[in-house]
Design goal:
Length: 297
């Protein structure tokens, strides 16, 4: 059987996400947002990128749905994930954290709008995510808000960022695994769970999403660490080698390149097995798991 052809699927889904984000970003101005703030928020939100988190959300919704996944709650869930992810990038790039000049192939938000407005644009994106997600009558929206808040907050992405910048950060695999399950993995796991919840999936589907999301979230970060060593700024659309320069421990630094790749492959196999009951031997979710480690940027 031929492997699922991910490239046209990704093009279609990324275009779908871009259109959804543009539609929601257009609501910022009429809602009374100061024009310069709206411009800064749109600058980062609409800058392109892989859109992996909303695509995962939509793919899980499609896999479990008993009805159309063009429902407002599914689409809003997908968009809210990208709002939160983009906010995290804007803040990560600030001089007080990673101090990066390039993101998604163009100047970072604070290089264009200054540090104070970039900080506030990130705040605006984070809070707008919950405005988008909570903006409807469906009871499941409250549960989705809780999922997103947990993934983005102190026990998720923010907590992982704190572990990442800790002065006494340990050069140990268990520390690295904990850090990245929070910093990167929590939001990817939430994307998978939110897709199932928004589309009305059952408990078995939710368990598949958990196993898959945990595996892909970690595999994605391992691949990022490998690319930071082996790729270029031109290919990545952002600086490479920054972690090594900052003295931060990465998977290649702690376990080596070969073991990092082996770990990522093992996680992908686990993710593929988890979604077989939902889509058969091969489908978009299995292909997305492979993409998380085979990508070039």
């Amino acid at each position: 059987m031929a492997a699922f052809n991910l490239e046209p699927f990704m093009r279609t889904q990324q275009a779908r996400v871009e259109a959804l984000l543009l539609e929601r970003a257009d609501r910022l101005g009429p809602a009374g947002t100061p024009p310069r703030l709206a411009e800064a928020m749109r600058y980062s939100l609409l800058a392109g990128g892989k859109r992996l988190r909303p695509v995962l959300c939509l793919a899980f919704a499609d896999a479990v749905a008993k009805a159309s996944t063009d429902s407002a709650v599914v689409l809003d869930a997908a968009c809210s994930l990208e709002y939160v992810h983009t906010y995290s990038l804007v803040h990560d790039d600030l001089p007080c954290l990673d101090n990066d000049d390039l993101r998604r192939g163009r100047p970072t938000n604070h290089k264009v709008y200054g540090e104070p407005l970039a900080l506030l644009a990130g705040d605006g994106l984070l809070t707008e995510a919950f405005h988008v997600l909570a903006g409807g009558p469906e009871p499941v929206r409250g549960l989705l808000c809780a999922e997103l808040a947990r993934a983005a907050g102190a026990s998720g992405m923010v907590g992982g960022q704190v572990l990442d910048i800790a002065a006494d950060r340990a050069a140990a695999l268990d520390y690295l695994l904990r850090l990245h399950r929070m910093k990167t993995g929590a939001l990817i796991l939430a994307a998978c769970r939110m897709g199932v919840l928004a589309a009305g999936g059952d408990a078995a589907a939710l368990m598949s999403a958990v196993t898959y999301g945990e595996a892909v979230g970690l595999a994605f970060q391992i691949a990022d660490d490998v690319l930071d060593v082996t790729s270029s700024a031109e290919a990545m659309g952002k600086p490479v080698g920054a972690d090594a320069e900052a003295g931060r421990f990465t998977f290649p630094a702690v376990v080596g390149l070969d073991e990092s790749r082996r770990m990522a492959d093992e996680l992908v196999a686990r993710a593929e097995a988890a979604v077989r009951p939902l889509e058969g031997v091969d489908g978009p979710l299995a292909a997305l798991a492979r993409y998380s480690v085979e990508r070039k940027s």
